[in-house]
Here is the input.
Amino acid sequence: MGRDAEGLLRAILELIQYILHSDIVQYIRGIQPKDFYSDKILLGTFLIIVLLMWFFRAYRALSLVAGTYALWFAKVYFIPSQSVEIDLTKLISFAIVGVAVGALWLYMFFIRED
Here is the structure.
């Protein structure tokens, strides 16, 4: 039993090292929210996940995924990545998205009873 566990642990560590040192991490870091609309593989995967959550009535998980995507989209397009001045209208837009997502999560996780 001990050797089997060691072999499994070694295989898991090799897989983690392969993932960390391959181009997968760089590809994921380079994804922008607009890529979901242009890349058919990303769009298909995202739609399958969302539809499966909807089909199995996993509304809390669906709200978590949708809210996270909305916050990511807002952060990328409203908050600049360089250290430049932030436009007040973009900051207010980001705050509105954040409040809306927070209200959705508050309702889904604390108020709604299934």
Observations:
- Residues 1-30 form one domain.
- The radius of gyration is 19 Å.
- The chain has a mean pLDDT of 86.
- Residues 79 and 86 are 7 Å apart (CA to CA).
